[in-house]
Amino acid sequence: xxxxxxxxxxxxxxxxxxxxxxxxxxxxxxxxxxxxxxxxxxxxxxxxxxxxxxxxxxxxxxxxxxxxxxxxxxxxxxxxxxxxxxxxxxxxxxxxxxxxxxxxxxxxxxxxxxxxxxxxxxxxxxxxxxxxxxxxxxxxxxxx
Length: 144
Hints:
mainly alpha
């Protein structure tokens, strides 16, 4: 699909691969959740991550020699990612009725910003957990 498109990006403007964006969004979710931040500050990242994950087969490949794991290690080493996380991170588990309710309220409040179909929060979390378990982007990086 991508071979049929004309690349009109200016050469001076860096383009970040969507997988790097995905890892950054998941990092933001984990960090904001860990700090018990107001969910409205990060709730949009759940749906964004879902859409990137479900579109992976339509994205251009990572640059030569780069895998999801090596990208995760590179971003962690460059401190673009604050800490390593996996599918068991509490941010993606929605544990506890209070936490889940807070996130659902923030998710519902964000609805006016979307004009297309919404992705339920539980669906987004399940997709994120499945992808993290499958790809293990930080398997080669110490946790913490």
